[in-house]
Amino acid sequence: MLDIKIQKTTTPKEKPAKGAKLGFGKIFTDHMFIMNYTEGKGWHDARIVPYGKLSLDPSCMVFHYGQEIFEGLKAYKGADGKARLFRPDMNAKRSNMSNERLCIPEIPVEDYIQAVKAIVKVDEDWIPEDDGTSLYIRPFIIATDEFLGVAPSKTYLFIIILAPSGAYYENGLAPVGIWIEDDYVRAVKGGIGFAKTGGNYAASLAAQVKAHDDGYSQVLWLDGVERKYIEEVGAMNIFFKISGKIVTPMLNGSILPGVTRNSVIQMCKSLGFEVEERKISVDELVEAAKTGALEECFGTGTAAVISPVGKLRYKDDVFEINGNKIGAVSQKLYDTITGIQWGKIEDTFGWTVDVD
Ligand SMILES: *Cc1c(COP(=O)(O)O)cnc(C)c1O
Known about the structure:
Number of domains: 2
Low-confidence stretches: none
CATH class of the largest domain: Alpha Beta
Number of helices: 7
Largest sheet: 9 strands, mixed
Bound molecules: pyridoxal-5'-phosphate
Number of strands: 18
Shape: globular
CATH superfamily of the largest domain: D-amino Acid Aminotransferase, subunit A, domain 2
Radius of gyration: 21 Å
Oligomer: single chain
């Protein structure tokens, strides 16, 4: 159990009006959670303080060598007025998996969940209530030793900030176009691809810019060695419906193990679909697109939830999927997962957790 000191702001900000366009990750609440780590002392001084700027020495290790990890989850305000989290234990465990890879000290899962609940509780009135909106929760850990040598830091900050957010994509559930990247790579097995850390995103920007310039909203990565097997999208895992089966790349050390991915696999199985987690070559995908065996394609992630893919580009070929319309399975999964998150559908999986 953490002993969390709470210092409330004396100058609360104006909350976004009902119906306001929130965007994603642009507006922040009145408070933030902070906890320090010091070697020999462990995690200490858990506190909730007014949201504000950090004062850090320019020599802090995180600025130079990228020793940091982050998470992303959401709080939802149900029709019954209750605030809920979705599978926060998965984020706490994944955070520790990332920590282990990045040589950052672990945080006990119970303490992590306690911290998330505490900050959401303090800013509960910031959870937006319009359809499709939620409070995006961004926990992260940064290395703070003031030292330019390359070594794991001996001090860290664990911080949680909150951002009331609308739909991730401006066009809602409209299918997106995806660029299959055949030159740059994101991650390799043995590297940090399975960890949720900024370095993976830094590595992804150049391809993202290239794809955007060509009118595609996301990059689909191929494996870093052969550039042959499908891995994942920038901030989403990827699923295909091929000849009636649901297929997704198996976790291989370079793919981020998404909470939404895990939930979608369970939902698909409970809907009676055969689900295959395996290697999928880009050639198999191109062939399936050409013959029409590729019936649906969608990305999964906390921010976007389910993002239907209507167009795939690989080298000189462009394929349309399902007439560039959302498919029946994608729609069903979106309705089910968001129904559970907003407390509109019975949570038979036991995934939601009350904030209280
Ligand atoms: C966070 C993330 C995902 C999606 O994970 P969820 O737990 O479903 O939000 C997928 N890929 C990458 C690279 C990510 O950082």
